[in-house]
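Thanks for the sequence, V.! I ran Cell division protein FtsQ right away. Repeating your input here for the record:
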Amino acid sequence: MKRSLPAPIDVKLMNVTASVLLLGCAALVLAAVSWWVVRHPAFSIGRIIVEGEMLHNNAVTLRANVAPSLTGNFFTIDLRAARETFEQVPWVREAKVRREYPNSLRVELHEHVAEAFWGPDTGAEMVNSFGEVFEANIGELERDGIPRLQGPEGTSQQVLQVYRMLAPALAPLNLEIDELVLNDRGSWKARLANDAQVELGGGTVEQVLQRVQRFARTLGAVTAQYQRRADALQSVDLRYEDGYALRLQGVSTVQGKALPPNRPKPQPKPAAARR
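Predicted structure:
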């Protein structure tokens, strides 16, 4: 039996060199093809398709404003950076961007749904339906019918939640909350659409809601005693444990004090008040 002899060293070196050269040529060809693809105009982003329900933006304006900020072509564009660019557009809450061969981007946009203004009157911030604070062009909106919420930083979701709980409680009285404020001490205060001031006090959300519900159940009986309607309310203080104090338009008070706390069970007639 014959035994095969190992290949000489120079033959091995030649084989290795040939393999390296072949791989090098393949890499050069791949690089050349990649360079051609990156720079060929056929793969430039030629179309941006914008989808989604938009009330404050339109597809034509979005394409005109965002397209100059996009870099790269169909293969090299950074989709994450493109998404962030679209999300910087006013009123845009979320953008989803994907490629469509050979040279298009399809963008699905979701706008903020404004629930309320946020912060002081001089600000340009709003709260969306998720309780998130965002900046908007306030000039695009009418102030009427949109409440203003205020609170310490990071409390927008809580303030919106409390507003959503209190508004239905006052609805049977045809009283609307125009402004709801949570101060740094955890106490709540509201201003109604008729400019009436409401001291809601502190405590848990459930405690605040219970005070408002008690007030809503009994206000009709109180105002009827003075031949007034609920919209005659000027101010009310709900920070009493077993009642509340209020002022009614056209009803005078003794020594400038509000009508004494109303206690529904039993319900006394405010002796200090006179018409």
